[in-house]
Structure formats: structure tokens, C-alpha cells
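Q: My labmate handed me this sequence with no annotations at all. I'd like to see what the chain might look like in three dimensions before we decide whether it's worth expressing. Could you predict it?
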Amino acid sequence: MMGLPSPFRFLVCMCVAAVLAGCAAPPPAKPVTQTTTIRSDSDGQAVIIARGEPKLWVDEVSGAPGDGNKALTRELIQLIDQAGLTFARSPGLADYFVTAIVDVSVIDNQREVVEIVWRMTDSAGTEIGQISQRNEVSRGLLHQDWGDTAFYVARGGLEGVFAILDSLGHPQP
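A: Here is what I predict for the chain of 173 residues:
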């Protein structure tokens, strides 16, 4: 995260052990290490048609001003895809879900605080980790086009997703 242009430097809090310890429920005792889809062929024999890493579902970001909801969602999906993680074709096929809520608070006439909380849940809806980003910006800066800021914020969110997946036994690049 160092080297990002100010005011786009978001502090990413990714202390996974602390985050997991602070969750209402412990992480799953037996993490999903592989997803396998099996069907029967015409002779009734089992045939593996898909095998891979856990599948993610990314919900649209909410609460962001301007085009932030769509921009952050689009950037996170692109970064996850570039990283080689697997997407679920539908929410019902996902092993893990990523959601984010953005909150903007006015400090004064010239400044506001932007806070983004990315949450990961398992297929049962249990929170398994979260990533928080917070930064003070010029008031109104993000009320229209997020531009490159969406990329930097999503990249910080992805680093947190990697850390959470790694803590569950799914090492990432």
C-alpha cells in the first residue's frame, strides 16, 4: 500500500487473527479445500466435471457516493479474476461471499472520512473475517467518479481477502 498517491492512501487493517478472534462465531473447523462437481454419464458412472479452489461470490458494494458502488464492485471482481481466484456462477454455488459497505462522514466544510468495511462470510452466512479501510479526503472528492481510487481501494480489499483465505487454509499468490 506504500507508494499510493495521497489522498488515495487507505489504511488497510488486516490483522486476520484479531479479526477472526473478534467474530461472533469461530472460523469453520474444517475449511473447504476443494470443490468438486460430479454427475453421472449415460452408463451411470460418476464423472468429475469440475474441480477447483473455493468459489467466491462478490455482492455489489453499497453506501458509496458517486459511482463508487459500481466502480468498487467492478474493480474487485477484475482483481480477483486477474489473481486467478474462482467465481461461483450463482450465489447458491459459492463457498465464500464478499460484501462491502461504505460510510462517508463529514468532518467539516472541507474534509470527510471514508470508511469501507469488506466482510467475508461462509456459505452458512457466518462472518469469517473483515477488512477495514479508512481515510480522510477532501469533501466531495468521491461524490462523482471514483476513477483510480476504486482500483486502489479494491486492491486493499483483495489483500484482505487473500489474508482471510490464507488463514482458512487456502494459500494465495
